[in-house]
Design brief:
Structural class: alpha/beta
Helix content: 40-55%
Largest sheet: 6 strands, parallel
Organism: Paenibacillus glycinis
Low-confidence stretches: none
Mean pLDDT: 93
InterPro entries: Flavodoxin/NO_synth (IPR008254), Flavodoxin_CS (IPR001226), Flavoprotein-like_sf (IPR029039), FMN_Rdtase-like_dom (IPR005025)
Pfam family, one: FMN_red
Strand content: 15-25%
Bound molecules: flavin mononucleotide
Distance between the termini: 22 Å
Protein name: Flavodoxin family protein
CATH topology: Rossmann fold
CATH class: Alpha Beta
Number of helices: 6
Order of helices and strands: EHEEHHEHEHEH
CATH superfamily: Flavodoxin domain
CATH architecture: 3-Layer(aba) Sandwich
Shape: globular
Number of domains: 1
């Protein structure tokens, strides 16, 4: 099954998180993973995907303009129901812990729901998630000022682990859904 990861990133933090999501998705047998900066991503490629995961830096609690501009090109796909039932998930980075990461994640999920996608978050039975994660996707804090501080580095490293976990979870969900659809189609 095919998984597309699209990210916006200016200084590289969100790109790092996107790559961890890709790494986790690639662990699932049969997963073909495509990853692109939003500037290079083509919305028409989404039609062929089983799962779509997008993410960006949080800008004032919401989607960065780079990714939002790209999402706003999805009108034709929306009008033709091309993304209905695709599995979706989201991720973001922010500079501060209370800098709006969950607001950004929720804002990233909203357009997926408008497309009719099926959203996958992260549950509490993932211990790291219950301790410092989010149920809405992966939101990682990457403090700019104290980038050399060990605590912030370790928080960022833990966030990358959650990114991998999300990638694996989405790829598994997409595989199970595709197999279920195929089996129902042969019975009908
Ligand atoms: C226009 C703008 C608005 C931002 N707003 C916030 C914010 O509201 N809260 C926050 O914690 N960080 C904010 N940031 C910081 C970025 O979200 C953060 O540094 C992010 O990790 C950068 O990701 P990148 O390295 O992938 O570009 C903002 C940055 C920019 C450029």
């Amino acid at each position: 099954m095919k998984i597309y990861i699209v990210f916006d990133s200016e200084a590289g933090h969100t790109e790092q998180l996107a790559r961890s999501v890709a790494k986790g998705a690639e662990r699932v047998e049969g997963a073909e993973v495509f990853i692109n900066h939003v500037k290079k991503a083509n919305v028409n490629d989404l039609k062929e995907m089983d799962a779509i995961i997008w993410g960006c830096p949080g800008h004032f609690g919401t989607i960065s303009s780079g990714l939002k501009e790209w999402i706003d090109k999805l009108g034709y796909l929306w009008a033709n129901g091309k993304l209905v039932d695709k599995v979706g998930a989201v991720f973001c980075t922010t500079a501060t812990i209370h800098g709006g990461s969950e607001a950004t994640l929720l804002n990233l999920i909203t357009p997926m729901l408008h497309q009719g996608m099926m959203i996958v978050g992260l549950p509490a039975n993932i211990p790291e998630n219950a301790l410092y994660g989010s149920y809405y996707g992966v939101g990682v804090t990457s403090p700019v000022e104290d980038a050399n501080d060990t605590l912030s580095q370790s928080l960022f490293a833990k966030g990358l682990v959650l990114g991998e976990t999300l990638g694996t979870r989405v790829a598994n969900a997409a595989a199970i859904y595709a197999a279920g659809k195929a089996s129902r189609a042969t019975k009908e």
